[in-house]
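Page 42, continued from yesterday. The earlier attempt failed because a stray header line got pasted into the input along with the sequence. Redoing it now with the clean sequence only.
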Amino acid sequence: MRGPLPSAFASVNPISRFSRFSPLIATMLGMFGIVGTVVAPSDAHAAEPMSSPRVAVEAEPLAAQASPATLANGRDDPTLRAVVAERRAGLVLGVAPGIAFAGASGYPNNARLIGNPDFYSQSPLLVGTSTTVFLIGALTDFFSFGPMVNVAKFESSSWKSTGFAVGFRAEVFPLVRLFPRLADISVYGQAGIGGTELQAKGPFPSADGSQSFAGLGVHHEFRLFRMLGGHLAGGPYAEYDAIFTTSAERHWGAVGFRCAWYGGGVARDAH
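This time it went through. C-alpha cells are written below.
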C-alpha cells in the first residue's frame, strides 16, 4: 500500500492552491455585479417598444400644420395676405389739356445754315395749347409708368410754333405713407423724342429740328366716380416741357386739368 504523496505533489492540490485567491475573486465578482446592475435596463424600460426617430421628427411638422394655432398664424403672416391697392390700380388712360406759354428759337435744320445769324429766328412769348395723352399702368399706390404723347401749338400775329413728342411718363405719389391727406399729389416726369418748328409768317425760313423731349410737372387728383369697373379721377396740373435739337429748341409751361380713368379695383371702391 502506497504511502502519502510527497510534499511536492501535495502543492498541486487545486483547492489548496486557489484558496488563497478566494478573497480577490469574490471582490471582482462583486464589482461585476454592481456594474451589471447599473448598465442593464430595467424590465419596465426594456418592455417599451423603440420608436423610429425619423417617424417622430416627421410627425411633429404634420401635427403643427394641422393645429389651429398654426393656421391662425398663417393667416396673420403679412407675406401670405392678398395685396389690395388703396387708391390706384390697373390700366390708366388719361388726357391732360391745358393753356400754355412758350418761347422758341433756332436755325433751319441745315448744316450749312446752323450758326449763321442771318438765318436765326427767335419768337416772343407765344400763347397756345398743350395736350398730353397717356396710357400707363398704376403699378402701386405711389407709382405709375407708361407711354405718352404730347402735342403743343402756339401762335401770334407774326409767329407760329408747332411741336410733337412721344416717350414715357412716370408718376410718383410721394406722400401716400408720409402724409395721407395729400396722398393724391403727384410729381411726374416725361422723356422721349420730340420735334419742333418755328415759322415767322411771311417768306422767311423756319427754324426746326427733331431730337430730345423732357418735361416735369405736378398734379393733384380727386376721385370723381366709379366707371367701367374702375373709377375716374381728375384735378389740376402744372408742368414745364422742352424740346432740344441741334438746330432749334422750344420751352413752354402749361396749366390745365388732368383727367384719368383707373381700370383696377381698389379698397376705396367699397366706401
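Notes: Residues 1-12, 14-19, 34-60 have pLDDT under 50 and may be disordered.
Reminder to self: strip header lines before submitting.
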